[in-house]
Amino acid sequence: MRVAIDLHIHSALSPCADNEMTPNNIVNMAFIKGLDIIAVTDHNSAENLQAISDCANQRNIVFIPGMEVETREEVHLVCLFPDVQTALKMQDIVYKALPALENREDVFGQQLIMDEEDNIVGQSKRLLITAADLGIDEVFDTVEGLDGVVLPAHIDRDSYSIISNLGIIPDNLKARYLEISRACDGERYKEQNAHLHRFSLLKSSDAHMLEDILERSSFIEVEERSVKGLLNVLRTG
Known about the structure:
It is a single chain. By secondary structure, this protein is an alpha/beta fold. Helix content is 30%, strand content 20%. The protein has helices at 23-32, 49-59, 84-97, 105-108, 136-145, 162-166, 186-192, 227-236; strands at residues 2-9, 37-40, 62-70, 76-80, 112-114, 120-123, 149-152, 177-180, 200-203, 219-221. The strands form 3 sheets. A 6-stranded mixed sheet has the order 7-4-3-2-1-10, with helices on both faces. It has a two-stranded antiparallel ribbon with strand order 5-6. Strands 8-9 form a two-stranded parallel ribbon. Strand 2, helix 2 and strand 3 (62-70) form a beta-alpha-beta unit. Helix 1 packs parallel to helix 2 (49-59). It starts with a strand and ends with a helix.
């Protein structure tokens, strides 16, 4: 079964995202654009996932709970989980590894926590847009232990990517898929980087504004249209 996906979307909890990235707005835009499966992956946090999951259920969109973790090496990793509760377990681990810094709204923006009706129910006071004291290996091992999957994020970019910061994809990492940016030509990029031949590339939006959420332009084959079906493909290749 071929499904249209966007596995890297930010909500208003990410300080760099537009405040219009509310649970209902994200899900309704994904519905309008004809997406089958989406993941919301805020910076180092999972506090809006339950509300977005509730909204996605009403639109019959498969929702993958996620988080974009920034590692000790300042590498961004998209972490995807089987359910919201598991994502919250990862949040506990990441929060303990974040520096004890408060967010400055005047510099970084608000970090809004919302319910399924888009009401603001709180704000995260800790600075989310920073590196956690977790290495790349630790994040991969921890997420695998939680039955999740890790996608190295926007590997084609000049910053915060595993290739820009390390120069390689370490052989020990259990990654089958790599994420590329929405503007990246996957086939050409692979031709220019022969060392990536063993990986499959997936395009995501890294949307911080509603209009940036992908159209039906990124596809993957799954055996079933479900969280389990998608994670199994990402895990096994």
